[in-house]
Amino acid sequence: xxxxxxxxxxxxxxxxxxxxxxxxxxxxxxxxxxxxxxxxxxxxxxxxxxxxxxxxxxxxxxxxxxxxxxxxxxxxxxxxxxxxxxxxxxxxxxxxxxxxxxxxxxxxxxxxxxxxxxxxxxxxxxxxxxxxxxxxxxxxxxxxxxxxxxxxxxxxxxxxxxxxxxxxxxxxxxxxxxxxxxxxxxxxxxxxxxxxxxxxxxxxxxx
Length: 207
Hints:
Number of domains: 2
Shape: globular
Number of strands: 9
CATH superfamily of the largest domain: Jelly Rolls
Largest sheet: 6 strands, antiparallel
Strand order of the largest sheet: 1-2-3-9-4-7
Number of helices: 4
Radius of gyration: 17 Å
CATH topology of the largest domain: Jelly Rolls
């Protein structure tokens, strides 16, 4: 994804977030209080000055009372049984972070129990304190190409290659880094619990 496309994605997110906030008649301070996100951070996001981590997006979605997909594009209303969503190659909603390039798949439907992503792992090396994430829910990652290294709170790091996969409890601190010559590609699926959308691991400086 080129720099112009990333900027367009950030601009669309900024506009959508501001629209959702104003629809509720909220100030940035009120939105920050409801979501637990600092007002200064919210201001930077709305002005396209920063790309929020997925943790921050989850907090904003929860505070605004919407599905996280609605921060990228208005989701279709819940339709009950018989729903379907098709995503053509290259058309998923993009979320760019310092560690990962996420392509949100089939985001048109609201109230999904799974949140699938096609993710490119960009970062090859992190300090011990960087990139960790933890949140409610569970995550499944299948390596499509390249090699990744999974770091978790309670286990030794493991290197996974194309065809390997992992499944974790997302409440455990975790992060993923690239261990190949080129950026690794993975299918990343996160679950939601108790009616709240969940994220892919992303790290506290990003996912």
